[in-house]
Design goal:
single chain, mainly alpha, Fumarase C, Chain B, domain 1, Fumarase C, Chain A, domain 2, Ribonucleotide Reductase Protein R1, domain 1, two-stranded parallel ribbon, 21 helices, 6 strands, 63% helix, elongated, binds arginine
Length: 480
């Protein structure tokens, strides 16, 4: 296949160099964005009198036919094509002739690829946000259902204070809410269109960049042509959003691995989300959780890889930047897979309330309640803390819990103890009285769950960024 740039270059490209240079094996993924960009660009060229109405019509029919052919699987993306942009343009010229050659007027592959890649990231953000909102709803359901399911809260992985399983689920829901906000912020920051930048220095053609920007769903064109073709911040921001999101999923997975171990037995994963061992018949392994935890490393790698590609690049476009796509594609595929599996796993797991309560009862997680009780009776908190510490140490030695110590024994330590002590250290009461905003008391957790559901509803409706009408129409046409 002859190259678009034959002219200055007279020799055939070496076969290995050609394969090395070609990106079609992965960037064919951008075909919808590439065609969408060309549809809008050609409308603008016609509006500005740069091409005729007939030429624009021919371009549109040609592009939509190519779209259909690609959708039908009739186009083979061989390394003969340098990349998806070249491929679409060559197919177009083959099918409609000279009008096809006019499509690239006032445009370079540098602003074209910057646009296509941006449009791709936008659409992926929208998809991933939807999956996140679903996950948040599942967590909010679990939060509400288990608002009174007592479990030990941990610090340093040591039993610390009483919380509920619902409260724990809502902690994760809050992390995923921030992930949604981060994605929306990334959208807001990248909401500018690079078309018109050309290779790097704009163009002499009288392009209407507000037209192309708004019809492609952006608020405005980018205000510096060199920056427009050199910028991959949006990809980096997206990858860092994905890394933080993976970190959250990984932490939850890690907890689920611990909770499903024999040592904890707080949850049992459904068989549909577990695997067995080839040799140990008793095993039920949390492979899905481990994979989410493991794949977090890949996504961090995608981010570090692209940061490293970008760090030494002089302005403007450099071919190194072709490395941006696989990193983002890999992160998208990985995150989407994890987001497909995690909600189902959460929805179907068995929550072992009895085991959680037993663990909560055995670990002196009401020791703070004892210290608070004495402090409320007038003992300085530091003294109350010390006295309780000694009491716990004594209990451990004798194999008792705080509940087992008689009032006489307690009074030997302090006159302040009375019958009210047993109520103060009761686990359910202890949980119910932690009513501070954000705390684990039932009504607080229910409020958190309601807030999370309202958040999911609000942000499903589109959040801050609303694509304009025509873009919806194009996208709709393209999806069909
Ligand atoms: N395949 C290239 C990429 O992904 C497209 C841009 C090519 N531009 C150029 N001047 N070679 O980066």
């Amino acid at each position: 296949m002859s190259k678009l740039w034959t002219g200055r270059i007279s020799k055939e490209t070496d076969a290995d160099a050609n394969d090395f240079n070609s990106s079609i094996s992965f960037d064919s993924r951008l075909y919808q964005q590439d065609i969408l960009g060309s549809l809008v660009h050609s409308c603008m060229l016609e509006q500005q009198g740069i091409i005729s109405y007939e030429e624009k019509q021919a371009i549109h029919h040609g592009l939509l036919e190519i779209l259909n052919q690609i959708n039908a699987g009739n186009i083979e993306f061989t390394d003969e094509y340098e990349d998806i942009h070249t491929c679409v343009e060559q197919l177009l010229t083959q099918s409609i002739g000279d009008a096809g050659k006019k499509l690239h007027t006032g445009r370079s592959r540098n602003d074209q690829v910057a646009l296509d890649f941006r449009l791709y990231v936008v659409s992926q953000i929208e998809d991933i946000k939807d999956s996140l909102l679903y996950l948040i709803q599942i967590l909010a359901d679990l939060g509400a259902e288990h608002a009174e399911t007592i479990m030990p809260g941990y610090t340093h992985l040591q039993r610390a204070q009483p919380v509920s399983f619902g409260h724990t689920m809502m902690a994760y829901a809050n992390m995923f809410r921030r992930d949604v906000l981060r994605l929306e912020n990334t959208l807001a920051v990248m909401d500018e269109c690079p078309l018109g930048a050309g290779a790097l220095a704009g163009t002499t053609f009288p392009l209407d960049l507000d037209y192309t920007a708004s019809h492609l769903g952006f608020s405005k064109p980018m205000s510096n042509s060199i920056d427009a073709v050199s910028d991959r911040d949006f990809a980096l921001e997206f990858l860092s959003d994905m890394s933080i999101l993976m970190m959250h999923m990984s932490r939850l997975s890690e907890e689920m691995i611990l909770w499903s171990s024999w040592e904890f037995k707080f949850i049992e994963l459904d068989d549909a989300y577990s695997t067995g061992s080839s040799i140990m018949p008793q095993k039920k392994n949390p492979d899905m959780c481990e994979l989410i935890r493991g794949k977090t490393g890949r996504v961090y790698g995608d981010l570090m890889g692209l940061l490293t590609v970008m760090k030494g690049l002089p302005l403007a476009y450099n071919k190194d930047m072709q490395e941006d796509k696989e990193a983002v594609f890999d992160a998208v595929d990985t995150v989407k897979m994890c987001l497909k599996v995690l909600p189902g796993m959460l929805r179907t797991m068995k929550v072992r309330k009895d085991k959680m309560r037993a663990a909560a009862s055995g670990g002196f997680i009401n020791a703070t309640e004892c210290a608070d009780y004495l402090a409320k009776k007038g003992m300085p908190f530091r003294d109350a803390y010390k006295l309780t510490g000694a009491l716990v140490a004594d209990c451990i030695e004798k194999g008792l819990t705080l509940e087992d110590v008689s009032l006489e024994q307690l009074n030997e330590l302090s006159e302040l103890f009375d019958e009210g002590f047993y109520e103060a250290i009761d686990l359910d009461k202890a949980l119910a009285s932690r009513k501070v905003y954000g705390g684990p008391a039932k009504e607080n957790v229910l409020e958190q769950a309601n807030e999370a559901k309202a958040f999911a509803w609000e942000h499903k409706k589109g959040g801050k960024r609303k694509a304009p009408e025509l873009r919806n129409t194009w996208t709709y046409t393209l999806k069909k």
